[in-house]
Amino acid sequence: MLNEFIKFSDWSITTLIALSPLVGMLLALVFPKPAENSRTIAWGVFAWSLVPLGLTLFLWLSGGFNPALASVTGDQAMIQQVDRVRWVPFFNADYFVGLDGMNFPLVFLTTALTPVCILAAFRIKQRQNVYLALMLLLESAMLGYFVSLNFLLLFLFWEFSLVPMFFIINNWGGENRRYSAFKFFVYTMAGSVGMLIIFEFIYLATGTFDLVVLSRLAQGLPVDPALLAPKLGAGYSNGATLQSMLFSAVQDVGLTSVLGNSNGTPAAIIFWCIFVAFAVKLAVWPLHTWQPDTYENAPTSGSMIVSAVMSKMGAYGMIRLMIMLFPKQTNHFAPILAIFALASILFGAYAGLAQTNLKRLIAYASINHMGYVLLGLAAAASAAPESLGNLDVAIRTSALNGVQAQMVAHGFSTAALFFLAGELYERTGTYQLDQFGGLRKVMPIFAGIMGVAMFANLGLPGLAGFVGEFFIFRGAWGTQPVITTIAVLGLIVTALVLIRMYQKIFYGPVNHKLTNLPDIKVGDWAFNVTLPLIIVLLVFGIYPKPLMDLSNYAATVMAQVFTSL
C-alpha cells in the first residue's frame, strides 16, 4: 500500500505540500469566531500546518524523494514528484513543479518552521484568525516558489508572498510598522520588476519559461524543439546556447547599436538584473536597508518567518535562475559576488556591535550570515587554481552543501532568537539591551535555551550552525582564499556581537525592576515553541549526514558544470 501511495504521489504530492496550507487558511477564515480568549481556531490552524510537514517527512523518510537522483541539471528525469499541466498556452507555460536536491531542504525548512511560527502567534489577540490565515497563505506562497520549475509560476508565487507579509507587518507590527511594511514591499517589488522584464526578453529569445529547458540551453545541451514556442523557438538548432539565442534576439530587435556586438553582453546584463532582484531579498549590502526595520517592527512570529525562510528565497533564486541559467556569467563575475559577500559579512558584524535594540542586533547578525551564503555560492562558481586538480569538484561541492546547511541552520537558530527576544519583550516591555542584566539568576532555563540558540547561530561545533560555515569555508579557501581570510574576521566579530548580547541580558547586576520575571517552565507554551527548534539544532549539529545527503548529489552535479567551463 505504501508503494501504491508513493506511485500516486509521483504526480500529486508536491502540489499537496505547496497548496494544502490554503485549505487551512480558508477554514481559519470561515469558522465561526470562538469565545473570547479561546484558542480553538489557533489549535486547528496549528494542527493543519502539520500536514505539509507530515507530507514532507513522509517523502524524506519513505524514499519517495531519493537524494541520490536529485539533480538540478536540465534533465527532467532527475526531478522527482513532478506535476506538469498545461497552464497558459499563449505563453507556452505549464504548471510545472517538482523536487530536487536544491529545493527539498528549503521545503523542509518551510514546512518545519511554519507550525512553530503559528504556535508562536498564539499571543496575537486582535483578529487572530486573520493573522493565522495570512501565515498559512504565506507558507503556501513560499512553498510554491521553492517547487516551481516554470518562471511564470515561480514569479507568481514570489510576488504573492509579499502580500501576506505586508499585512502581517502593517497590521500587527510595532511602532513603525507601516513605514517598515511599505519599505519591505517597495524594495522587493522594485527588484521584481526588472526580473520580470528580463525574463520576458528571455521568452522572446527562446520561446519558453521552462527552467529545465533553459538550464539545458545554458549548458549547451540539446532540447526538444517542441518544448519551445513555434515562432519564437524557430531559430533553435542543436548546439545553440541560451547566451547565443539571447544575442540573436538582440540582433533581431536592432539593439546591437546600443549593446554592441559582443555575444555575452545581453547575458551579462540579464545576470546582473537577476542578482539585484534576489540580493534585495537576501539583504546583501548595500541593498539591505529594508531588513533591520522590517525585522524590528514585524510581530514576533512575523520576524521569525521572514528572517528564517523568506530571506532564503533570495539565495534559492540565485541558484535556480542565476547560477543554473547563467553559469558562465556567474563564473566570470564570481570575484565581484565574493566582494559583495565580504561586505555583507563585515558590515553585518560591525553594525551589530553598535546596536542597542535586541531585534535590530539579531537582524544585522542575519545580514552577516546571509553573506556567508553568498560567499559559498561565489566560491562554488569561481575559477579554481590548477593546483586543486582532482579536488576541484569536491571543493565546489563542499561550498554548495555548506550553503544549504547554512540556510537550514540559520533558519532554526534565528527563529529561536527572535522568539526569545519577543518573550523578553512580553516579560519586560523593552528590547533595549541596557535595560536587562543578570537575568540568568532570574530565568536560568530561559538563559540556557537562548544560549543554545545563540551558540548555534555563531557556529559552535556540535550545533547545526557550525556545519554550514565549515563546509562554506572549506570550499571558499580553495577558490577565494584572500576574501575568505578576511571573512574570518567577520566570524570573530559576529561571535563578539552575540556573546556581548548574551552578557548584557543574562550577566552583571540584576535590574531591580526585573527580579520577579517568570522563567520558562518545562511543558509550558514558550517551552513547546522553542523545544523543536533546539532539538533540530542539536540533531543536525551532532549528525548532519541526513541533511547533507539531501543536497550532495545535486551540489556535485552543479560543481561539475563549473569545473567544465
Annotation keywords:
565 residues; mainly alpha; 2 strands; 3% strand; disordered N terminus
- Our count of helices gives 23
How does the major sheet shape up?
A: 2 strands, antiparallel
Q: Structural class per helix/strand content?
A: mainly alpha
* Average pLDDT rating: 86
Low-confidence stretches: 1-10
Specify Rg, calculated over alpha carbons: 23 Å
How does the overall form come out from the CA principal axes? globular
Strand content: under 5%
Number of beta-strand segments: 2
How far apart the termini lie comes to: 46 Å
* Percentage of residues assigned to helices: over 70%
Strand order of the largest sheet: 1-2
Q: What order do the helices and strands follow?
A: HHHEEHHHHHHHHHHHHHHHHHHHH
Give a description of the structure.
This protein has 565 residues and is an all-alpha fold. Helix content is 70%, strand content 3%. Strands 1-2 form a two-stranded antiparallel ribbon. Strand 1 (80-88) and strand 2 form a beta hairpin.
